[in-house]
Amino acid sequence: MRISIRLTAAFIAAAAVLCAETLVLRWREIPPSLVAGRKIAVELKNGQSLKGKALGVTPDGLRMAVRKGESVVPAGEIASLRVNRTGHKGRIIGTAIGGGLGAGTATGVAMIEGTKQPIMAAAAGIPAAIGYLLGWARDYKRTNIQVEAAQ
User: What's the mean pLDDT in 86-107?
Assistant: First the structure.
């Protein structure tokens, strides 16, 4: 049991690292479609940070929805952006495939005489959980954008 918990934790940590990419771009090179409508975190050159939803990218700055309404952050003040993109298709497909494999495994385990129910539950549940985690890794994408100074 401890081994499966450690393997699951290691898988989640590896998936988080593999799902991130870093880009180094000038402000005018940032594609609006990469940022607009996404949850973002903005790191300013003065060390402050803002979190919210990007509403739009303009040549002059970034429009975003924050807790207190709408804010426009001038492009010259932005040091980096962290853009989170999520989906759901991978988790649905992964869980379905893992659940199917788990059901087949549990059926095979159930045919063994004297098998206890917790073992059958684990045989069914573990593949479904692994499928969900693989799907999550497919669905979740984090892009870090380092903003270069305009020359």
Answer: 83
